[in-house]
Amino acid sequence: MTLEVKDLHVVVKKTGEEILKGVNLTIPTGQVHAIMGPNGNGKSTLVSTIMGYPAYEATQGTVTFNGESVLDKPVNERAKMGLFLGMQYPSEIPGVKNADFLRAAVNATMPAGKTMPVLQFMQRLNSAMELLQMPDDITDRYLNVGFSGGEKKRNEVLQMLMLQPKLAILDEIDSGLDIDAMRIVAKGINHLRSPQFSALLITHYERLLKYVVPDQIHIMVDGQIVDNGGPELADELEKNGYAKYEHEAKGDQ
Ligand code: ADP
Ligand code: MG
Ligand code: MG
């Protein structure tokens, strides 16, 4: 199931400002890709648009998954297609217990009228929590309320392991994690790697990409993909930064 983004232009609805200016990106089934780039250049806008966040409007271009158009589908349909987004800033939801949220999310991706048997849900939850080394009580707490930054990120990965998406998009899942937590998060992602699973990682740091080695890295600057390469691109960025690309984007190299 290939994700294909073609000439995607996106504006912020509220202001009309164009953030994405013709993004082209293909993630074939079974591959892990990463997008790197300086802050404020449209990475989160891209993934939020793919998942259907209402703040953004695509004005041109297409997004397809397995050949099916994504942009005209409601958010829950996108989840049913097998798309998942682990958010850069997970929301706190007082009054909703983490376990109840997970159960509702899992059931929402099941065919109409079906739910996952409780035993199967509990088994999957227990093994995911063990893999991520999460404390038992974290599922009894309200979703993300009072969670540390690292717990919030780990909880996004827990959701991913519960939902077992076909394409997981993880937006700065490594930000604010210490090295041990990052290794655990990487283990969670690698656990799902298979010829039927693909992932898109947004990250600033080559560190995560040492643990989850991507098939391809894309660089986003000023709302466009300005370069593509293999894992070695991350090392080059670590050394030289983005200066080269920022000049290109401004057309004054
Ligand atoms: P990145 O993830 O690469 O750091 P973002 O996609 O979050 O970048 O933001 C790209 C640009 O779009 C920034 O200038 C940001 O201020 C703007 N932007 C994103 N979302 C909104 C929004 N909901 N309202 C107004 N501006 C936004
Ligand atoms: Mg940012
Ligand atoms: Mg972002």
Automatic annotation (TrEMBL):
Gene3D superfamilies on file: P-loop containing nucleotide triphosphate hydrolases
Entry keyword annotation includes Transport: no
UniProt xrefs under SUPFAM superfamilies: P-loop containing nucleoside triphosphate hydrolases
GO function term, MF aspect, one: ATP binding
PROSITE patterns per UniProt: ABC_TRANSPORTER_1, ABC_TRANSPORTER_2
Span of domain ABC transporter: 3-247
Keyword Ion transport among record annotations: no
Keywords of this entry: ATP-binding, Nucleotide-binding
One Pfam family cited in the UniProt record for this chain: ABC_tran
NCBIfam families: sufC
Family stated for the protein in its record: Belongs to the ABC transporter superfamily. Ycf16 family.
Protein name, entry field: FeS assembly ATPase SufC
